[in-house]
Design a protein that fits this description.
The chain is α/β, with parallel strands linked by helices. It is about 30% helix and about 15% strand. Helix 7 packs across helix 8 and helix 8 packs parallel to helix 9.
């Protein structure tokens, strides 16, 4: 059935205000403002679908700007996620170059899709990867022993973002999701190794530096704790929240309630907890005048029958939550994938998910970078 992407807006003003909602970056580029307006004004019963690394590689191909999503459903993801963990190096974590990532970002933008970036940043203190257990984030701040090495990483990021452009002057708007899943214990910036105040200080310094020192104004900033280490309530969500002046998107990474192997709760209980979690972020976003999104989710190898329609989509629809997008993780190999392939047990379920009027894929969205009239 043909689906419509409906956006409405009574008034747009240059300060980015939309019914009291505004970007935290008051100098945001016009196209970045326009994208945020579109995210804010999606219909309540519609959600965009996203896929990590979706046009960079798939289960049996690499670097071809193809799409596993399209191979199964006939359409592409509206949102594509990227990670820049090894920025500054020749190749990234998955052995592809940053030139290829930039090419992919441009491709998605030109096609009318939306790009979002996470950053599994190497530890600036010891040079180890993001999963390093050594941390002292106060040493990364001005006056700290490792401030210089941290600033070098931010400068590399700024150079990368400046290359994400079309022509000489059009900087591509990007949803930036730094320091994600901070309430866990697996990253060097996480709760296990830093106090809440230290985490907040690092976040605020990072965003201020990029905006004020590097002049980066095409980022929409997303906050995304991990559901597995979070009580489903206002206080649980807001651990480490850096403040309304530093967050545009109320995000959540939730694999836990969608069939994660270590979650011993019943399927019914997981469904209920998932409903509660997305209702919570939707309510927080509404109260804080921001966008809500399920910034990471999925079921590895999609082992649960009808996972897309029954475990993911049905709770979103029945809860009445207002989410701008949901993003599932990457298709890396036959033991680690989140979008089904042809012949997979959930192939037709994914097709049904794509055809549902509540889901928006690339062909269902108007150019989100145009001013809404």
């Amino acid at each position: 059935m043909f689906k419509f992407y409906i956006s409405f807006l009574a008034l747009i003003v240059t300060s980015s205000v939309v019914f009291g909602q505004q970007l935290t970056d008051r100098k945001a580029t016009t196209k970045t403002q326009n994208l945020y307006h579109h995210l804010l004004n999606l219909e309540t019963n519609q959600v965009m679908f996203g896929h990590q690394d979706g046009v960079l590689y798939g289960l049996d191909w690499k670097y071809g700007l193809r799409s596993d999503v399209e191979m199964v459903s006939g359409d592409r993801a509206a949102v594509v996620g990227w990670d820049i963990g090894k920025i500054g190096a020749e190749v990234n974590i998955d052995s592809f170059s940053f030139k290829q990532i930039i090419k992919g970002i441009r491709h998605v933008y030109k096609a009318g899709g939306i790009n979002t970036i996470s950053w599994h940043m190497d530890n600036p203190i010891n040079g180890d990867n993001a999963w390093s257990k050594i941390s002292n984030t106060t040493a990364l701040l001005p006056g700290g022993e490792f401030n210089f090495s941290y600033v070098q990483k931010l400068d590399e990021f700024a150079r990368f973002i400046r290359k994400c452009r079309v022509g000489l002057f059009t900087r591509i708007p990007i949803v930036f999701r730094p320091f994600h899943e901070h309430n866990g214990d697996w990253f060097w910036w996480s709760k296990a190794y830093n106090t809440e105040d230290e985490y907040i200080a690092l976040w605020q310094y990072t965003i201020d530096y990029l905006r004020k020192e590097k002049g980066i104004h095409n980022l929409i900033v997303a906050f995304s704790p991990d559901r597995s280490r979070m009580d489903i309530n206002w206080e649980g969500y807001h651990y480490g929240y850096p403040g309304d002046e530093y967050v545009d998107v109320i995000g959540l990474d939730n694999y836990w309630d969608l069939g994660y192997k270590q979650n011993t709760a019943s399927a019914d209980q997981q469904l209920e907890d998932f409903r509660r979690s997305i209702t919570l972020i939707s309510e927080i976003a509404n109260k804080r005048n921001k966008v809500a999104a399920l910034t990471e989710t999925g079921n590895e190898t999609i082992a649960i029958p009808d996972w897309y329609t029954q475990r993911l989509l049905e709770p979103i629809k029945s809860s009445g939550s207002r989410l701008a997008w949901v993003l599932v993780w990457r298709n890396a190999n036959m033991g680690h994938f989140y979008v089904p392939y042809k012949g997979h047990q959930n192939e037709m379920d994914f097709v049904a998910f794509e055809k549902d009027e509540a889901t928006l894929f690339l062909d269902n969205i108007n150019n989100p970078y145009k001013r809404i009239k």
